[in-house]
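## retry 2 of 3
previous attempt timed out at serialization; input unchanged, resubmitting
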Amino acid sequence: MAKIYNRDLFMTKKKPLPSPRASVTPLDVRLGLTNDSDVDYPLRWGIIGVGEISRQFVCSSRECAGATMAAVASRSPAEASSFADAHGVEKAYDSIESMLAASDVDIVYIGTPDRVHKEHCLMAIDAGKHVLCEKALAENVADAKEMYAAAEQKHLMLQDGVWSRFFPAVEHAREVIEKGAIGEVVMVQADFDPLYTVQAVTLAYGVKTKPINIQVAGKKGGPGGAIIEFENDRFANLTFVAFPSEFPEVFEIIGTEGRITLEQPGHCPTGLTVRTPLIAPSRYLGGNTPSPFQRFEYPLPDSIRLPGGFPNQAGFYYMTEAIHRCLAAGLRECPQFGREESMHLLELLQIINGQRSHNPDLNL
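## retry succeeded, writing output
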C-alpha cells in the first residue's frame, strides 16, 4: 500500500500527476491482458540450482497463491536434497535431466551461473517446460536469439528474469512516463552495475530509441561508467560502482517538465519521488523555489520472511505473480520486460562490456 508524503505545491501544475492511489496496477493488468485474480493460477515450479539466489527466489515466490515449489535439482544430488529439506521444496531429484522429465513440473526457475544459462534453458525448453531464467539471460545476443527461437518453436514462455520491472514503484514510474507528466525524457542517471543501470535506460527511453554513441570507461567487473547518447540531445549517464563503497544507488529519470527518482536501492525500490513543477528548471525560473513533489512508498509484503537476503529480494514475489497471470492468459512473455526489450538490453550490455574488456590502462 502506498504512503503519500508532502504534496505542498507552490503553484498550479500544467499537467496533473496520476491521482494518488493506495496501490499501483501492474502493467499486464492495466493493459487488459490478464486478470489480477489469476495469481492463483496453479503452476508447479522446478528449481535448477541451489545457490543463494535460488533460496531467495523460493522463499519469496512461494507466497504467490498459485505457486507450488515442487522440485529442485542440481549437479549435486546431496545439495539438492539438503536444499529441499531446508526450504520446503516437495522433491529433490538426483539430476537436472530427471527433474525435467517429471510430469508434475510446469515451469522451471534457472538460478545457476550465467555461463550455463543457455544450456539449462535449452534443456528445459526441450523438455516442454516454461522457463524463468535469472538475469543475465545469456552471455551474448546470439545465444539469446537461439534460446528465444527454441521457446517460440515449442510455444513456451522464456522470461528474462529482470525482476526490477515488476516492483510497484517501477510500475508507477512507467505510468508517469507514459502519461507525459515529466515531459520528454532527456537524461537518465543511475549507479550500480551495468545490467541494472542499462535496464533503467530502456525503461525510460523504450526499445525503439537506439543509441548513436556509447563511451565507456573502466574494466569489466570493476568500477567505471558509460555515457550513452541518443538523437535529439538525449543521454544516459551511468556509473558502475566499486565494491566495497557506500554508493547511493539512486536512479533518476529526468524530463523536460519533471523528474522521477527511484529511491535507494534504485534497482529494487520500494519508494519513488515525482517532481512536476509548473516551470522547469524550477529553481532557476521559479525564484529558487524547490520543485513540489509527491513521495510514494510501496512496502514489501510483510508475510515474506527472508533472513539474510539481498536488498528487497522478497520482491521476486511481484515477478512470480505476473508470470502466473500471464500464463493463465496464454501469454508467452510479461509486458513488463518482453523479448524485444530483453534483446535490446543484451545488445547494449554487449557493447558496454565489450568496450570495458578491451579498455587498456592509460599511461599518463
